[in-house]
Design goal:
This protein has 388 residues and is α+β, with helices and mostly antiparallel strands. The chain has 2 domains: 173 residues, FAD/NAD(P)-binding domain; 144 residues, D-Amino Acid Oxidase, Chain A, domain 2. The strands form 4 sheets. Strands 5, 6, 7, 14, 15, 16, 17, 18 and 19 form a 9-stranded mixed sheet that branches. Strand 16 and strand 17 form a beta hairpin. The model has no long low-confidence stretch (mean pLDDT 95). The structure holds flavin-adenine dinucleotide (FAD).
């Protein structure tokens, strides 16, 4: 499709990290973007996570996932730097990875990766014994996803319409028409980006030539307020986030705005609802005791039902842990694109995916190597028996 002012218009379904990142990247390039979300405000889906990490995956062979997450974390940190307030919305703290199973190994040439074996000082600062195997990710930190979503949606050129539940998508003439449960037209545009996480499945299911195997993966974090911790507990808090068996973050504002601590997350397959569960708090307590044993022991009281708070959401996953991004089938479904399947790494990947999609639509150089971009292509889910 040729790009003219009339065709540089897109409707995006879903105002989470994925949809807001696409909207921001297109609007920066002069597009007019309408974002529709069924919720009444920011953070209804997984992107309502109170706090999470942007941290790279590492592997001895520097595999595709490692290279893509490294590029993704870089893109996210640059976006955070540009749009968010350091210290309250995000922070480039560095992240210590407690290498519990000993399976995280750096490539032999990791000179440009900003990930190194952790120093003795960092291990000690985390309150771990000196012989603890650990990595240090210098280009990593925590982010409050809601703040990033809200900031990306505020980009000039982006219009957000809340309370718009999309039930149908159909190509009529040169446009995609988006309808609600009553068949009323909510929006229409030459370009349509589906970014409604697991719900994307229901919208795309009627398309005969495309089957993206999205799955829900429920997860829960447990959190509490710093002011409920006593002095000896505070002294055990690491000065940076620690991951490796879930992740622990402290000193980050809770949804109420006061500083808090956060440990997560649980993983539950085949669950399409996201209630907060008492047994998941217990699982997170065990997780903390494994990740940071001294702190976990000291904070046991914080997991009592009258103390602990929880937040649960649904990750939307794909089998190879890589999102599906870009045009779905440019010949048979022109103008229809996807950005979903962020799994447990939406903070690290959604910004890069938004940039990738915008670069593809604008026929620009891609923000990552073509070979890596192919691993993210939504087109990989075009059904083989219907492929051209
Ligand atoms: C417990 C937990 C911990 C996590 N921790 C981390 C972490 O530390 N680091 C990290 O990188 N990632 C983490 N993640 C993953 C990250 O939160 C997700 O990958 C990311 O938020 C997904 O963003 P999204 O925009 O694709 O989906 P969502 O945020 O779910 O957004 C989808 C949006 O689509 C809307 N929608 C759905 N259906 C429709 C419809 N029919 N019509 C209109 N609107 C619709 C929803 O209201 C929602 O706003 C975690 C996730 C969970 C659950």
């Amino acid at each position: 499709m040729s790009l003219t002012p009339d065709t540089r218009q897109a409707v995006v379904i879903g105002a989470g990290l994925s949809g807001s990142a696409v909207a921001h990247s297109l609007a920066l390039r002069g597009w007019s973007v309408t974002v529709l979300d069924q919720a009444e405000g920011v953070g209804a889906g997984a992107s309502g996570l109170p706090a999470g990490l942007a941290a790279p995956h590492v592997s001895p062979d520097d595999n595709v996932l490692s290279r893509i997450t490294r590029a993704g974390v870089k893109a996210t940190l640059e976006r955070a730097q540009a749009l968010l307030h350091s210290g309250t919305d995000w922070a480039l703290t560095g992240v210590l990875e407690h290498n519990l199973a000993g399976k995280r190994r750096l490539p032999s040439d990791a000179s440009d990766h900003h990930s190194t074996p952790a120093s003795a000082a960092a291990v000690a600062a985390a309150g771990l014994p000196p012989d603890t195997p650990a990595l240090w990710h210098a280009q990593a930190g925590w982010i409050r996803p809601r703040q990033l979503v809200a900031a990306q949606l505020q980009t000039p050129g982006v219009q957000v319409r809340w309370g718009q539940q999309v039930k149908g998508i159909e190509r009529v003439g040169a446009e995609w028409v988006v309808t609600d449960a009553q068949g009323q037209i909510l929006a229409q545009s030459p370009w349509l980006v589906v970014a409604s996480a697991f719900d994307s499945l229901a919208l795309l299911r009627p398309l005969p030539s495309f089957a993206v195997p999205l799955n829900p993966l429920r997860g829960q974090i447990s959190f509490g307020h710093m002011h409920d911790l006593n002095e000896s507990q505070r002294q055990l808090l690491p000065p940076f986030p620690v991951n490796g068996h879930g992740s622990f973050i402290s000193g980050v504002p809770t949804p109420e705005g006061t500083p808090g601590w956060f440990i997560g997350s649980t993983f539950e397959r085949n669950c399409e609802q996201a209630p907060v569960r008492a047994e998941d708090h217990e699982a997170n307590q065990v997780r903390l005791a494994t990740l940071l044993p001294a702190l976990g022991h000291a904070m046991a009281h914080q997991f009592k039902p009258d103390q602990v708070q929880g937040w649960a959401g649904l990750r939307c996953t794909l089998p190879n842990r890589l999102p599906a991004v870009g045009p779905i089938d440019p010949q048979r479904l022109p103008g229809l694109c996807l950005s979903t399947g962020m799994g447990a790494r939406g903070i690290s990947l959604a910004v890069l995916c938004g940039e990738l999609l915008a670069a593809q639509l604008n026929k620009e150089a891609l923000p990552l190597e073509t070979a890596l971009a192919k691993h993210l292509a939504a087109e990989r889910y075009v059904q083989p028996n219907t492929q051209r």
